# Entry
Amino acid sequence: MSVARRTLIGAGIGVAALGVLGGGAAFAVEERLLPGRSELHRLLGLNGTPGRIPDVAAGPAVSGSFVSAARLGTTVGWTVSYPPGSKPGDALPVLIALHGFGGDHRSAFGSGLGLDRFLAQAVQHGARPFAVASADGGNTYWHRRATGEDAGAMLTDEFVPLLAKAGLETTKVAFLGWSMGGYGALHLAGVLGAARIASVVAESPAIWHTAKEAAHGSFDGAADFAANTPFGKEASLAGIPLRVECGTGDGFCPNVQDYVAGLHPRPAGGFTPGGHDLDYWRRQAPAQLAFAASHFAR
# Structure
């Protein structure tokens, strides 16, 4: 999410320049030679139809919190959403949603991404019932940091056991993440491997080629970046059903296209009009949840 904010700040300069410089500047923005490509696509109506949260009733949800040792004593909030017709305690497979920068467990549900109602719609349309769960990861990019805080370990070593105690099937879980969480989904799936991961949806993942390009605070330096970048570690995802997608108006799109080019076989998903925003992420949600549901073992 930080790149989107940085792009929008630059967009004020980039779009203003269009009025002065005309078509030449527009070409420069489009080819990423000037900042503001995301804003330019939005202003020109190139991002496609905004996705809408479906007008269906969500199923039951349970929320709570715990003190996380992995996050150095931080109180972590969490929510589990069940589809209509299911209830807390049912032995359902679970999709864990990893939020973006500045978000928390609530971002996946309600008036945020709305996955609770997209889940209800998916099951209504015949998808296998499953739960969607999310927990607060902070802004540390879902990997161990120099401070010792490790939001990824919080998920795998604290939150997943909590879900298991609640009766959910956690032998293999699925991940869905957007922006910072899209990076986190790829990173953690690579760490855990196919024995623990049923599928991964990485949506508009915040990924960079070099530490110098990365958003401030996303990594602790060049060594941390090298240890945790998904580039060069594509083989760690072998055997995991993978869906990667990004809007063509998203500043991350070139990096994500480069990353996908290194994946074999090519993952599901792809690149369609859209920005780094809820309009795009909500539009992709139905296909993403159907993808996740189709890869849970029966």
Summary: The chain has a mean pLDDT of 90. The chain has nine helices and eight strands.
